[in-house]
Design goal:
TetR/AcrR family transcriptional regulator; Arc Repressor Mutant, subunit A; DNA-binding; mainly alpha; Tetracycline Repressor, domain 2; 2 domains; HTH_TetR
Length: about 210
Amino acid sequence: MTKFPLRTKRKMATREKLVSAARQLFLSKGYDNTTLEEIAELAGLHVQTLYRHFGTKQDLAKAGDEHWYRAFESAIREKPDTQSTLQFWREWMTTTTEELLEEGEMYRSHLRMRTMSPAILGATIAIRNRYEDLLTNYIAQDFNMSPDGVSIPRLVAGMLLSGNDHARRLYEQGGSDIKNDTEKVVDLTIQLVGHLDRQHAHEDAI
């Protein structure tokens, strides 16, 4: 076994410690009142170690969302041509929601943290826009339409993301079935616009 995989595992473990410590302090003290030194101390690491992994507090706050976006970007680029973007998105959201729910209360805490500071909210919105752009391009290919401007593919991508945002808010407030709500968002979207994707229309029928 080479040393590289071990170094990679150590690097991932260090990042997870820092992200977890940052989340804990952001929630207990507030984003603006938390210092990078405090985060490093809580994680049991030197602040210089923190700087090797994260340049700013905002980088720490958006680390989780960045991780999931990179995974999504890689997965959608590798999806088979026979699978529609809408069905891919449904499977992706189901799988990732199940994984995030395994975190329990930590996931709900993460959702609360995303809107607690303008800096974090700004980073969250920027990542959301990247999801929208990528979804728009792939939906446009399926619909044989242009993704430019105020287009149907852009509106469909926005519909999916806005529906997911609402499902997260309901879950954050407690008592909702986020997995069911997330799947319902896609199913309703397919009912409304699935006919526009003639190549995959038989797959998207509910």
